[in-house]
Amino acid sequence: MGSSSEQLRDRIAVELARARSRTSLLTEVVDDGELMRQHSPLMSPLVWDLAHVGNQEELWLVRDVGGREPVRCDIDELYDAFKQPRRDRPALPLLPPAEARAYLGTVRDKVHDLLDTVAFGERPLVADGFAFGMIVQHEQQHDETMLATHQLRAGSAVLHAPPPPEPTVRVGGEVLVPAGEFTMGTDTDPWALDNERPAHRVDLPAYAIDAAPVTNGQYEAFIADGGYDDQRWWSPEGWAHRLREGLVAPMHWRRDGDEWSYRRFGRWDRVRGDEPVVHVCFYEAQAYAAWAGKRLPTEAEWEKAARWDPSTGRSRRYPWGDEDPTGAHANLGQRHLWPAPVGAYPAGVSPLGVHQLIGDVWEWTSSAFGGHPGFTAFPYREYSEVFFGDDYRVLRGGSFGTDRSACRGTFRNWDYPIRRQIFSGFRCARDARPDESYR
Ligand code: AVJ
Ligand code: FE
């Protein structure tokens, strides 16, 4: 027990440090003016995310787990995401960058202090280091949000990374998933969040799912075929949104002569056909799928394709097995600044032959966000439960900007169906035909 809790302490320290170095990078490559500015009404000024990360760490670890005196109790309201809508955040009396950084440092010092003495397992909140894992994931999620803010900022590139790997296998078409039960969700992943629990059996009819995310090349064919102008492919809400916003292509795309270019972190490039399409909203994904004669997968269909191992009947933590992701498995963690071409991650394939489920792009599903059967809010209703209902759609799998600590076969993200500043793409699915169900 002693040595395993030492290992847990070390692992938490490593994960906290990894998150913090990413936060620092994202907030050090721009000057104070840019940190305070709002780059889009959809996003917070970067300096709000920065101090909010520190404030959540103070609330959960310093005050709740540690039972320590507040570091600052005058700023809780300012950094409460529920009290301050994003568009109003730049007008708040926010901590200036230097003060925000100092605040994060003070909070982190106290967290290290309490990490030295905390007894894991004394309370459910710290069992297996959960509260620390939750805070690591919270910081990494805001880092992804800050990365999306960087994608929206004007001006030349300040973030740099090597391009993702080139394809080494040909991947295309669909994979048939046989009818039957599988285990969805988890009881055992120690840092899984409340909305991923509990594990439960789900029975699905046979279906086909795309072996890879929909690519730019495929999406361009939809555009070229007049898909944005043909109401047939759109849901009523989707069509109204498409008209209201004048959507004609994914966000950050521009027509150059007879080709498309996209803007990626301050650089314009010709659109590459074999990369997963990114920056599309749920309605665009849904319209593409209808045009292709398919539909979006349900969340359960996505998860069965990602986790179910037909040879054992069990569900894996990840498509490739139970081991944590490495650089060979998936395009995660901002190692690259855009999705990898289809066929670049053969080691990440699922037992059924489905590729790039983890990393590259968040994948829209047709499912509204809700609790798994037997859901209980933990440790607070505001993490997930208050978002349950028809307003949000679930996205799965993580993007190139998602850290591995905040990405699992069970991990669930959610957003409004109109959102496309996030790193969102999709793949299609369809019901199996009767002649396909028995191979
Ligand atoms: C799960 C990504 C929808 O960013 O709003 C951050 C994560 N929760 N702070 C979000 C989250 C509280 C959340 N998403
Ligand atoms: Fe937050």
From TrEMBL:
E.C. number: 1.14.99.50
Keyword Phosphoprotein: no
Residue numbers binding gamma-L-glutamyl-L-cysteine: R86, R87, D88, R89, D415, R419
Occurrences of domain Sulfatase-modifying factor enzyme-like (ranges): 173-430
Catalytic activity: gamma-L-glutamyl-L-cysteine + hercynine + O2 = gamma-L-glutamyl-hercynylcysteine S-oxide + H2O
Cofactor(s) for this UniProt protein: Fe(2+)
Domain named DinB-like: residues: 16-146
GO molecular function: gamma-glutamyl hercynylcysteine sulfoxide synthase activity; iron ion binding
Binding site for Fe cation: H52, H138, H142
Metal-binding found in the keyword field: yes
Pathway terms, separated by semicolons: Amino-acid biosynthesis; ergothioneine biosynthesis
Described purpose of this protein according to its UniProt entry: Catalyzes the oxidative sulfurization of hercynine (N-alpha,N-alpha,N-alpha-trimethyl-L-histidine) into hercynyl-gamma-L-glutamyl-L-cysteine sulfoxide, a step in the biosynthesis pathway of ergothioneine.
Family, per entry: Belongs to the EgtB family.
Name the record gives this protein: Hercynine oxygenase
